[in-house]
Q: What sequence folds into this?
């Protein structure tokens, strides 16, 4: 059974703080991983891919831990504009239906 | 470059009416998807297509039909709308199965 789990939050974080959240997956054969950002009443938008070696894009760092089967997203020096829902995506390979979205973590950056 | 375009953006239907949602992408992507998103449920796959002329069922296909007559278009049909189909519908496309998805702006559908 495909399972991708995220803490729904909300995470209430003061502006300027560092925040991190995880996404766990159950299928060890999962191959590709992504983080998406979704603003209220908008479509999900790709934030970053998650590579085995980890990757960084400005204030955002994504990491993959295959042994414990989770991916993480860390946001440094958080901005008010970072307030959104963050969705993880896990692709298990094979057919197009091997893609699973987490239900998202709601992040609120407070001034 | 428009990316993924969905029409209409909003629609209100009465129970039993039918409608078609149109999705168009200009990125020459092979894969296209229709999702619905409901509060607390996350994104759920309705139908998908791995290429022109192909369609397949996703997690929640009942009450919906799809067609992919042209590579760039993926249509979602509701034959007889029900209040349970009130939702936000997103179309997405990707280059291949393990590539990231690109989403359209969504269609907010209310069935009364």
A:
């Amino acid at each position: 059974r495909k399972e991708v789990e995220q803490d729904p939050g909300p995470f209430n974080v003061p502006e300027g703080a560092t925040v991190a959240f995880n996404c766990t997956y159950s299928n060890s054969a999962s191959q590709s991983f992504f983080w998406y950002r979704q603003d209220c009443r908008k479509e999900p938008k790709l934030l970053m891919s998650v590579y085995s070696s980890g990757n960084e894009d400005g204030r955002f760092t994504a990491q993959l831990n295959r042994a414990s089967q989770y991916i993480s997203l860390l946001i440094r020096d958080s901005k008010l504009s970072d307030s959104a829902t963050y969705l993880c995506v896990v692709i298990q390979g094979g057919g197009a239906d091997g893609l699973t979205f987490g239900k998202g973590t709601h992040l609120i950056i407070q001034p | 470059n428009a990316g993924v375009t969905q029409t209409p953006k909003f629609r209100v239907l009465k129970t039993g009416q039918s409608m078609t949602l149109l999705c168009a992408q200009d990125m020459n992507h092979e894969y296209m998807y229709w999702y619905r998103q409901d509060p607390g449920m996350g994104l759920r796959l309705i139908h998908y297509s791995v290429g022109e002329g192909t369609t397949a069922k996703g997690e929640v296909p009942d009450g919906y039909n799809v067609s992919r007559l042209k590579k760039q278009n993926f249509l979602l049909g509701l034959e007889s709308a029900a209040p349970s189909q009130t939702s936000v519908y997103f179309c997405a496309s990707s280059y291949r199965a393990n590539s990231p998805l690109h989403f359209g702006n969504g269609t907010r559908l209310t069935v009364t």
